[in-house]
Specification:
Chain lengths: 357, 250
């Protein structure tokens, strides 16, 4: 049940990333012909037993060890880790379900009718569409994956991925509340986020290569009923994005506990550096886009532009999001897409911040 | 990770979501109460999905002639592809362990001390002068800690001056010297975005860390510009220990 070291022999796979993350048990599938091994039924029974033992151990540990955990730093970490997981889970599950529904029930012709063919015009349309659907960033990643799988231009789907968590109505209202009705902050957030999303989409349309995206081809049996496709697609996305969400939550929890906010406040007076520090903080803390305005507003030693950086970068790029994107699209994609987003969001932050704030 | 394991992990994850919302109030330690219906729905969806996967997998492979042919086809004959999940999916048991075994408590004095002197924690009220009228003619005014702190920082009319006020929070030590803090964490969405609001109390002996108290008393009105104040001080006339409030955050 552990990861197999790199360079596994079972490499008849779409990409390196896949063979790296392929399960240890996979070898049993590829190397010996099935009839050599134990009957499949036995492996299933073994899996069921593993989970039965696991649940029994949890019950045991629950009654014996829970009260013995007293290390404050560890408990604070566990609280934040659990909080990020629980908070992201509904958004992730709804996003995955929506994406699975797109895959299973909406015919491909529907997309071709509504989304412009040319990527140049599809990008702003997708960016604006992102502003309509209220959702968190965790939901938008699997949805963008579902759109690409259905033949939508990757640049347009990625623009949607970026703009949906940043400029949807819930986020804008939350920003207005957090900044007690300073409309210029809401406007600046909207413009900078929308601009960054659309420009990133255009850059991707011009320079991006499709094979950077590791989209698993889910070639379904065309005769399979819609519900089976829905179920399999949902499970697939959940396993890929969910595992990485846990990685991101653990990393963000660690930084939340380890980095005291007073270190951050010491640079608040330096104009450009403070904005960069706030952008870095947004990436590390991985706060949900619907809550980040409250945190930005609470760091009131910082200039408005620095707060804007926090709110523009955060929904498009943070540890949790990078991890989920890696699970959905692969690392080759992430190591190109993440720097591009960072660059465009910072440019638009300084541009809009300079003009409006 | 084979398919039945994926189904089991999904099922456990759903159980964790339901266990922390329906069968206990544990979720209040981590997220806002308005997440409850979403978490319940998510938990139900995950449980249904998990059970469905496990049952269909068992039926397809133990069933006499594989009644569910779709599954045996996509699940086994293709050998690899999407019927298997990457190892990273095993990490999904970590939140399950965290909820059922660790059951971490709400953030408390430790975090309140770690985020010391963060800054005026309520820029929300920068405009000032928009506070509701206060009236203590019918007993002490009950204020949320965040309300008290934002008034103390930004209410130029100083409405709280001289009124008897009631605050509820937990005790946290003051690492920098005299007195102790009555603190409360304010959160917008989940514990990761929690911000501390606190008042400094010097005229009562320090209670046990993380114990919850309701204090009555008055705001120590500062001399100069209220926006320059680092710590808000509070003079206690009466304090009563309380059971942990059901929602530890504001």
């Amino acid at each position: 049940m552990s990861g197999q070291p790199a360079g596994s022999p079972s490499s008849a796979r779409p990409s390196l990333g896949d063979s790296l993350v392929s399960d240890f048990d996979d070898r049993d599938d590829d190397l010996p012909p099935p009839e050599w091994g134990r009957p499949r039924g036995q492996r299933r029974t073994a899996t069921v037993w593993v989970f039965a033992v696991f649940i029994a151990l949890m019950a045991f540990a629950h009654s014996w060890y829970t009260d013995d955990l007293t290390n404050e730093a560890f408990l604070a970490w566990a609280t934040i880790f659990t909080a990020i997981c629980l908070q992201a889970m509904p958004f992730l599950v709804f996003g995955v379900a929506l994406s699975a529904a797109l895959t299973a029930f909406v015919p491909e012709s529907a997309y071709q009718r509504f989304i412009p063919k040319r990527a140049g015009t599809a990008v702003p349309v997708a960016g604006a569409a992102g502003g309509v659907l209220p959702g968190c960033e965790c939901a938008s990643v699997p949805m963008a994956g579902g759109l690409i799988r259905r033949g939508v231009a990757p640049a347009a789907a990625l623009t949607f991925l970026l703009s949906a968590p940043a400029i949807n109505p819930v986020v804008l209202v939350a920003t207005g509340v957090a900044f007690s009705g300073q409309l210029e902050m809401v406007a600046a957030r909207f413009l900078a986020s929308f601009g960054a999303a659309v420009v990133t989409g255009w850059v991707w349309a011009r320079f991006g290569k499709t094979d950077w995206l590791r989209m698993k081809q889910q070639h379904h049996d065309p005769a399979a009923p819609g519900w089976v496709v829905f179920r399999d697609s949902m499970l697939h996305d959940l396993m890929h994005a969910g595992g990485y969400l846990v990685v991101g939550a653990a990393a963000a929890g660690t930084l939340n506990v380890v980095v005291p906010r007073e270190w951050v406040v010491t640079v608040a007076d330096l104009p450009v550096i403070s904005a960069l520090v706030m952008a870095a903080l947004a990436i590390l803390l991985s706060i949900c886009s619907e809550a980040d305005a409250f945190v930005a507003a609470s760091l009131s030693d910082f200039s408005p532009t620095a707060m804007l950086a926090f709110m523009v970068v955060g929904p498009m790029l943070d540890l949790k999001l990078i991890a989920i994107q890696a699970g959905t699209f692969g690392w080759r994609f992430v190591c190109r897409f993440a720097p591009l987003i960072l660059a465009t969001t910072l440019v638009f932050t300084f541009l809009i911040g300079g003009l409006l704030l | 990770m084979n398919r039945i394991a994926q189904g089991m992990v999904t099922l456990l994850l759903g159980a964790a979501a339901l266990g922390s919302t329906v069968f206990s109030d544990l979720y209040l330690n981590y997220v806002k109460d308005l997440f409850q219906p979403f978490l319940i729905l998510t938990g139900l969806m995950l449980v249904v999905l998990g059970v469905w996967i496990v049952v269909s997998d068992l039926r397809a492979n133990f069933g006499a002639d594989g009644g569910d042919t779709q599954d045996s086809h996509t699940g086994e004959d293709s050998g690899h592809d999407h019927s298997r999940a990457p190892w990273v999916a095993w990490l999904l048991v970590l939140p399950v362990i965290s909820v059922f075994v660790i059951a971490p408590p709400a953030l408390g004095a430790y975090s309140a001390a770690e985020t010391t002197t963060s800054s005026p924690s309520d820029a929300e009220s920068d405009e000032g002068g928009e506070f509701d009228e206060l009236d203590d003619s019918s007993g002490p005014v009950q204020l949320e800690m965040q309300d008290f702190v934002s008034r103390a920082w930004t209410d130029e009319e100083r409405q709280m001056s001289g009124l008897e006020i009631e605050l509820t929070g937990f005790a946290a030590p003051n690492p920098d010297g005299e007195g102790w803090f009555l603190a409360r964490l304010q959160m917008a969405c989940c514990a990761a975005d929690a911000v501390v609001n606190r008042v400094l109390i010097t005229d009562e002996p320090e209670p046990e860390k993380d114990s919850w108290w309701t204090v009555r008393g008055t705001w120590d009105e500062p001399e100069g510009d209220i926006a320059e104040v680092r710590e808000h001080r509070f003079t206690v006339t009466e304090m009563v220990e309380v059971e942990n409030p059901p929602d530890p955050y504001e």
